[in-house]
Amino acid sequence: MNPVFPDRIRPVWLASYPRSGNTFLRIILQNLFGLATYSVYRTEGANFPDPSADALEQAPFLPRDWRHRLTDAPGAEQVLIKTHDSQEPGGQTIYLVRDGYAVIDSYFNYHKKFSFEQPSLTEVIAGACQFGRWSEHYLSWQPQSRPRTLFVRYELLVNHPHDCVPVLADFLQMKPRTGRLPTFAELKERSPAFFRRGQDRSFIEQWTPAQRCLFNELHGSVMTQLGYSLQAGVESTGAAALELARSASRSHRLYLEQLCNVAIHAAALRELHEELTTVGTARDRLAASEARLSAQLEENQAALSLLHRNGWVKLGAALGLVRPKHRREQNLERQSSGLPGDARSGPEPLPNLR
Q: Which domains does the chain have, with CATH numbers?
């Protein structure tokens, strides 16, 4: 059940590049602090698959207008919100960072399992994917100098989660409660495609020398700033550049296909609009004709009522020259039964002509 969402909220951003431990942080906040956490990618009415939500006991939806409820007012309720986007203005932040090699390799494999978008490893290294380059994401948030920001390393969070609890408690000004955290093996058993390797770095052997060189070129300075070691590159980035050129061509082709699809849908919508306009016009004309006929019918009924009260008409009815409607219906019934028209009722009474 979705908890009642407050009218005014003070956000605490749970920010990271994808695959940096954000889901595990949310499990800690859920199990040891009793806090429900939200995600900017899980809103009411948007029924997109969210593999990270399956790892949580509670993954409530943000209301559609949640951004209109953000405030820095002291009395507003504190709400924790996950994001992989670039820097959000204002609000407290818990920023998670992970070794760039591991992040990029994990994010590449995540795309293969869960995402409609299927970039190559080289494209993910270059940032040709949904959330851009890993190092640019870090630089946009500047977590080690950003005000009201707690900087947390993935390696500490995963290897020593209980050491992070008092740090989180101090930052959030909350007391933790008694609870249990699942082990990585338990998480992997629950969702093996989502929780894959943990700390294993053997994947780097599957990278080509050109991919390592490209990584060092694009992310080396941030890796050094964060104290992570770089893999030596022995080739130029020429092969990676060729792959990226092919990727750009493929992306442009997909872009043109999408433009064509948009044009087709736009034309269909215009045609539908024209049809609805035509139907609406015909419906309006039909309604006007119906009103006009109804008015004419009322006029005819009024004239007929006056005519029935006329003495000459009454005399004609008495002589059988004009029969009231109900007498005509009675005669039709008698004829259908095989009796003469006036056999059952006797002579008709003379009308009162005065």
A: 9-206 (3.40.50.300), 310-354 (no CATH)
